[in-house]
């Protein structure tokens, strides 16, 4: 929980909770204990290398970077920390201009270096990454780089070899449940057990999604329960997904198709979201191994075709039809 929230100094009004409750120190980061321990040792020994944070959204990469800056520079951390989003400025000019100018002009006499944090670094072009690598070499005596990305494979090897690589995993259910429960208590929200379970399920390892969903659901009434969460997140209940798949496996294609139409039209789900939920739930279904593998194969085909621009409903109906036909 943030210092502002604990001290009561947070500004009043309708705030964005993901910022209001963003952890201020490494000790407050949920669910990444092994990574936090290693980062803390760098700070204690004052031997911070270049860092590369890789992992999905909402798992603590940006929070860890700002927490490092706060720990090193205290209240003056903003003056010693340049944050850039590479997805906004992904060309070579951002490296030659903003990054190089900050690295050249900034200096911290106490630590001997300042920090440049480059978020979504996997969006940089190869030319920009090559220029970044040269900048890292040239200013390594007074600048440390922290790069954040979803896919480390998109970062060129010369940069990876210059960084200590940390792979952030999706957050566990317990970590998400603990923070959402803490926020609900701090905000005076009545959060039911089934509502908490629904938040954890809808988040799928993404803390930002869980907190945003909690804030959105809290606006619908005095109590945040399962119904409020599934309504506000346009997420299907796991049992609805299972019933749809089971109907197809049983050869009842018309029933399965109606359930799919309910998810798309009434619940408002996108085809990609249904694919994600199907993928997450395959091994939770009571299926024999052959059928489960077959379903995974169909999910992969539908996901690829949807990502290439095919009609979502057509592809999902084809998925269900293939399951129905395979059992007949």
Describe, in plain words, how this protein is organized in 3D.
With 328 residues, this protein is of the alpha/beta class. It is 55% helix and 10% strand. The protein has three domains: 32-167, P-loop containing nucleotide triphosphate hydrolases (Rossmann fold, 3-Layer(aba) Sandwich); 173-233, Helicase, Ruva Protein, domain 3 (Orthogonal Bundle); 238-326, Zinc Finger, Delta Prime, domain 3 (Up-down Bundle), CATH 1.20.272. The protein is built from 16 helices and seven strands. Residues 1-13 have low confidence and may be disordered.
Beta-strand percentage?
5-15%
* Percentage of residues in helical conformation: 55-70%
Mean of pLDDT: 87
| Form type | globular
Largest β-sheet summary: 5 strands, parallel
Distance between the amino and carboxyl termini: 54 Å
Q: N-to-C SSE series?
A: HHHEHEHEHEHEHEHHEHHHHHH
| The CATH homologous superfamily of the largest domain | P-loop containing nucleotide triphosphate hydrolases
SS elements, strand count: 7
Specify Rg, calculated over alpha carbons: 23 Å
Architecture of the largest domain in CATH? 3-Layer(aba) Sandwich
What are the segments in which pLDDT stays under 50 over at least 5 consecutive residues? 1-13
CATH topology of the largest domain: the name is Rossmann fold
If helices are DSSP runs of H or I spanning 4 or more residues, what is the number of helices? 16
The overall number of domains is: 3
Protein name: Replication factor C small subunit
Pfam families: AAA, Rep_fac_C
Keywords: ATP-binding, DNA replication, Nucleotide-binding
Family: Belongs to the activator 1 small subunits family. RfcS subfamily.
